[in-house]
Structure formats: structure tokens, C-alpha cells
Amino acid sequence: MEPREIKGLEIAAKLKLVRTSGNIWYVPSQSNKQEKYTVTLNDENPQCTCRDYEIRSRNVINTGLLVAAVLGIALTLWQVRSGVKTQRAQFLKDLYSTWASDADALAAYYHIEYGNFEYGADFHGSDIEPKIDRLLAFSDLVAELYLRSVISEREMAFFWYRFRRIYEDAGIQEYLKFLASFYDQVGVRKKPYHSFQEVARRIVSD
């Protein structure tokens, strides 16, 4: 996946995209909770009410990364949910490939898989910290897509073992505890990587 596509998936996981009728979607703005964009999807002339934006021949002319990502993921989800098999297959292929090809996330995963990850005072500011964060962020994204029924349980099977290995790691548990405490201190109500933790708990309890 391109960085813009990954960003788009992140936006879709955090914001509620509402399909009103036919191929018309309401996409909330990240910067203004009171503002919504209207996205109309069709094969000939997809359109968006996003400011400073044009769409020509299905090509997005990017004048703002956020708007591009919102429109891109709206189109992706529309294609996936509309049941177009080839589009869905490509979507899942990209999702699986991202896991398998992201060097930092993969390095963090194998660090955990081989029992080499330990959480301690020297973790913060280390080379492995951003890699662990990237792995957890991507896992959280996948879990959120699953909780929103964008991907099915069968399609999630690829991630079951990996989620279990990450979640059950003692070092990861210590890190999650630290983050939860930090979130409380700064007034963040959500648990860190809450979607990943919710799905992982279900896997472990089964």
C-alpha cells in the first residue's frame, strides 16, 4: 500500500463514514467535528465537496494529504463493500502484503516472536521503540477494520496467531500498562491501541 492509502485506512478506522443513498457518502472532517464532506462515487465522474479538490478521470489531484486519504478510503470501502470480488481480493492482498513487507513492523514482530523484546527504562528513545509502535498501530488498524466488519473473521485468520504472539508477550504487556498510565495522566480516555487489545483478548480467551 502507498502511504496515502495506509493513511486513508487509518482515517476510516477512526471516523464514521455514512452512506446516505446509492453511492453518496458523508465523510466527517478530522479538523472540524461539525463539518462533513459529501463524496459521490461512480465509474464516470466521482466527486467530492472537499475544499481545493478536483477529480479528473478517476485521478485525484492532491492539494492536501488528509482530503486525498479520506476520498481514497471512501472509494476503497465502497468497492470492497459493494462485493466486487477483484477489488476485494486486491484490498486483502494489499493488507496482507503491508504486514509482510513493512520492514520496521516486521523487525518488531520478529523481535517479539523470538523472545528478544524486553520492556525497560532503556526502551524509550531506543531504535526498537518506533518499530514496536508501528507494529501496534498497524495491528490496531487491522483490528478496527475487523470490528467494523470491513474484513470478515475468515479473512482475519491470517492475523490470529500474530495477534496472540504480540499480545501475550510480557514486554508488550508492560509497555501497554505504561501507556495506559500515561494516557490517564494526560487525560486520554481511550486505552492505548484499544481495538487491538479488544480483538487480542477475544483470541486469547477462545
Could you describe the 3D structure shown?
- The protein is an alpha+beta fold and 206 residues long.
- 59% of the residues lie in helices and 11% in strands.
- The protein has 8 helices and 6 strands; from the N terminus they run αββββββααααααα.
- β1 and β2 (24-28) form a beta hairpin.
- α4 crosses α5 (128-147) and α6 (153-168) packs across α8 (194-205).
- It is globular and about 55 Å long.
Can you give me a brief rundown of this structure?
The protein has helices at about 5-15, 65-80, 85-100, 105-115, 130-145, 155-170, 170-185, 195-205, and strands spanning about 20, 25-30, 35-40, 45-50, 55, 60. It is of the alpha+beta class and about 210 residues long. Helix 1 crosses helix 2 (about 65-80), helix 4 (about 105-115) crosses helix 5 and helix 6 (about 155-170) crosses helix 8.
| Strand neighbour order, sheet with most strands | 1-2-3-4
Distance between the amino and carboxyl termini: 32 Å
Number of strands: 6
Provide a count of the helices. 8
Principal-axes shape call: globular
Q: Give the topology string: H per helix, E per strand.
A: HEEEEEEHHHHHHH
Helix content: 55-70%
Oligomer: single chain
Mean of pLDDT: 75
The count of domains is 2
The radius of gyration over CA amounts to: 18 Å
Q: Regions with pLDDT < 50 over 5+ consecutive residues?
A: 52-70
Q: Which strand-content bin applies to the residues? A: 5-15%
Structural class, by secondary structure, is alpha+beta
The major sheet is characterized as:
4 strands, antiparallel
